[in-house]
Design goal:
This protein has 373 residues and is an alpha/beta fold. The protein folds into two domains: 187 residues, Rossmann fold (3-Layer(aba) Sandwich), CATH 3.40.50.300; 99 residues, Alpha-Beta Plaits, CATH 3.30.70. The protein is built from 14 helices and 14 strands. It is elongated and about 80 Å long.
Length: 373
């Protein structure tokens, strides 16, 4: 980007972020939504997709947006580059309101915001090199500079040996790497990812996530992504926001939201990440106690220091009766330990709610799964 355009747009070049801040400073937000609303004209009248979104995304962080289908995720992310015009409210980039940009400033803005998609949108009749080079040709960049840039980007995404290949000769992961290289040709400060790994197998997904994290760290890019894969958010994002019917229902650092989700929508979305019940236990699980020997099955989740040194003896004593440890495990997200225990408690009262409250003195989240004999 030329200095003239840079001054005109009033958006500074990105600085490498050592670590994204988990509690945003509104005065230093890279992207900020203020009272944002979006309404579409439907066949049967107006349809509200977003309502009063107030949100700040920090420079250099990887920010995730999750929600069920129709929650407003795509509508929200597309207001950042003005592919969607808000109906109400404002979008600020580095404190600059982009709502009133004329066409020239909008073109300059979009060159500073890259975007990758689920369906790679490559031109089938052009080679890898030509696909990456095309936006530079359209922008009138001289040939020598185009060649240098394409060469650097193909090396960055690990495709330097595939420059003559056509999309039909590439795997899904390689196609997405081409898409990423193309999105970076104008040295963007922000990269938008719309279900960028949804069409990929798990192994390829991990390689693409590794590449995105490397780009984030090396180039200091702010990455905003939407996905229906909760494991993607867990593996790469610093913070996450949960949308439901166009409204924010929960937000925070990933380890906090994933470790102790508060809203029912968050709990539902994150349920697939729970340790699966052993099949033998699933087959025996009942909704009600049908025998004096029935045990209440509890799932406990721990975060922080309680995970590092859980006082199991005190927990078991508080629960009373006979306690069996069915399953347990610990994982780390952003350096924070998240632990989970699956217990079967045989108590003559069969009072599941009482047991849940007792366990709640030690665990951040306790769920009654049912009864087993």
């Amino acid at each position: 980007m030329t200095a003239a355009i840079q001054r005109r747009l009033e958006i500074p070049e990105p600085q490498k972020a050592e670590q994204a801040e988990l509690h945003p400073d509104l005065n230093r937000a890279h992207v900020r939504f203020i009272g944002l609303g979006k309404t579409y004209n439907g066949q049967q009248g107006p349809v509200a997709a977003l309502h009063g979104i107030d949100l700040a995304i920090q420079r250099g962080e990887v920010f995730g947006i999750i929600g069920r289908s129709g929650a407003g995720k795509s509508s929200l992310i597309r207001t950042i580059n003005r592919l969607e015009q808000p109906s109400t409210g404002r979008v600020l980039i580095d404190q600059v309101d982009i709502g009133e940009f004329d066409e020239d400033r909008l073109v300059a803005l979009r060159r500073r915001i890259g975007m990758i998609f689920q369906h790679f949108n490559l031109m089938s009749a052009k080679t890898v090199w030509q696909n990456v080079e095309l936006p530079l040709k359209v922008a009138g960049v001289p040939k020598e500079k185009r060649e240098q840039k394409v060469r650097e980007l193909l090396e960055l995404v690990g495709l330097e040996g595939k420059h003559k290949a056509y999309p039909a000769q590439l795997s899904g992961g390689q196609k997405q790497r081409v898409g990423i290289a193309r999105a970076l040709v104008h040295d963007p400060a922000i990269l938008l990812c719309d279900e960028a790994t949804s069409a990929l197998d798990p192994e390829t997904t991990q390689s693409i996530l590794g590449l995105l994290r490397e780009i984030n760290q090396r180039l200091g890019l702010t990455i905003v992504l939407i996905t229906h894969e909760m494991s993607v958010i867990r593996d790469i994002c610093d913070r996450v926001v949960v949308l439901e019917h166009g409204r924010i229902v929960e937000q925070g650092p990933v380890w906090e939201v994933f470790g102790n989700p508060q809203h029912e929508v968050s709990k539902t979305l994150l349920a697939p990440l729970q340790h699966a019940l052993p099949q033998e236990l699933q087959n025996r699980l009942q909704a009600h106690p049908h025998s004096p020997d029935a045990a209440v099955v509890l799932r406990l989740q721990f975060t922080g220091s309680a995970t590092d040194e859980p006082d199991l003896a005190a927990l078991f004593a508080a629960l009373g009766g006979r306690v069996r440890l069915l399953q347990g495990g610990v994982e780390r997200i952003q350096g924070h330990a998240l632990g989970q225990l699956l217990l079967a408690v045989t108590d003559s009262s069969h009072d599941a709610e009482e047991l849940r409250q007792r366990a709640g003195q030690w665990a951040q989240q306790v769920e009654v799964l049912g009864y087993v004999v």
